[in-house]
Amino acid sequence: MPNESRIDQLREEAWAKGIVTGCGVDVAGGPIPQKPGYYGQPVVRPPVWTWEIPIYFFAGGVGGMSAVIAFGALLFHHFDVARAAMWIAAIASVLSPVLLILDLGRPHLFINMLRVFKPQSAMSMGAWILVAFGVCVVPGLIALELQAFQLFAGALDQILGVAEGILVFGSAIFGMLLATYTGVLIGATAIPAWFLHHKLLPIHFGTAGLGSAAALLELLGHRIAPLNAIGLFAAAFETVLLIWLSIDKHGVADRAIHQHGSGWLIRIGEMLTGPIPLVLRFFGVIPLAATSFLVGALISRFGWIAVGKISGRDPEAVFASQR
Amino acid sequence: MIGEGTHSTNQRRHTYARDNVEVGFFTDPTVCIGCKACEVACKEWNHVPDDGFVWSGNSYDNTGHLGASTWRHVMFVEQDRQKGGQIVGSHSLGDTNGENPFRWIFLSDVCKHCEEAGCLEACPTGAIVRTEIGSVLVQNDVCNGCGYCVVSCPFGVIDRRPQPLPDAGGAFKCTFCYDRQKSGLTPACAKACPTESIVFGRLDDLRARAMQRVQQLREHGYADAQLYDPTETSVRGTHAFFLILGEPEAYGLPPKPQIPTIHLKAAWTAAFATAIGAIVVTLCAFAFS
After folding, report:
1. What is the value of ipTM here, to two decimals?
2. Chain B within 8 Å of A76 (Cβ-Cβ)?
3. For every residue of B65-118, which 3-state class applies, written as one string?
């Protein structure tokens, strides 16, 4: 890209030789520009979000769905699994706001997120879901740990049991919203490749979150049948979503999903969360299946942000999505 | 005469802000001379930092597009079409006996101040508000720079200002010179416009004038003159509308802009269905295996 230093070069050349031979700057594609739209300039703005956001999507998905698994485990007396799952949820509930605050342009004003409660803004709802999740998860984990170490006896222990049940249930409710709202967040935007898949995105993010939570628990040593069943279901469902995405094509409008580097990230993410862990689980290679799913889920979140960046810079995609 | 009938209120003091009157911009490229006085006036009044010193090679446009530090942007559109009753002759490209027409159009782009604004709906801090004159305003001291408005604007107007520019981190766009309007002054760009290509005034007056102007131009042979004011879409019209010659795509304007909140219902339904599905699957997995 030429800049002002070219002016100095021209002045120096004129001073030394008395005449300037070259051009100031080459005319781009002149005399009539052939680029799409206005000189190929983007029509909408690509997202300004950096690496923190895809990692947050991943952490929120794993943490949120871990709370769901914790609730199921607690209900069916898998006490160890419930404790491990709540630990994952609690770590995610601390890590997520840190990642979100890091990505803010003005991190010191992060508390302004809680100035308003705005149902029509998915970002506002997300902030409140995250707060509610944290409020349930952290005391829920403390209650669970207090019971595990049997610090109290009698009536106090019973009250603790009730509190723990309510808090874990609350964690599960807000956890499943935390894992799925991120799909709404990027689905309800002006970026063509995102809004054209506003129904698929929450389903994909939620399923990836559930599968990742089960996979992480398995990798932590909880190799029980229910987690394998969840993992199997998630991998099968991700395979279905892969087929959906390859059928539901919108041509130029969502080409960022099928072309460029972003397309590869999406494809690799889909393969690692869909068919590959599905086959591996059928053959009982659970650690490998779990690792594949986790890596795939992470790559896929980076893929969707990359899709947004490329689609947002593509004027033809915007026109194609509207004509 | 072309140009007649579009008397603006650009130079007069007004009481619109006091009387809660909705105001707007009507930008007419057929009288724009591409002087960029609007860009300069905007930068000076609002203390907007530079947006990069780059030669684009795209006609005389080195500004590029609207952004955090570009609130007015004069476009230089080059097309191989006839402009109104333009006589194709020695000014055409090459010496093909005037068979290749060429037209050069200047249009000053600005925030559209939508009736249903994507950025305003998306803002999670309440930093973006609707003012009494109908404009959309970012309260700079409230914005924490989450960047959600950036992807929610169907026109790609608002953006987050990067480091190391002054006041970095927050989202910025045209303020419709809210401070000037509070004092009864005209927005800086309209005040500076030497040809009244940017017309400022009451929204209802302006719409009527814009329609009149389109009619007038059509009568004078500008067959492809039209008003760009997306009232038919979910944006439901804008407070800054444009007269354009030809298709909106050539100006980088979306042909049918939609406010992103129209996708919310379906997306949340999918999210709730997934959430319930996840809990059912988990409970079944623990119950039956």
Report:
1. 0.90
2. yes
3. CCECCECEEEEEEEECCCCCCCCCCCCCCCCCCCCCCCEEEEEEEECCCECCCH
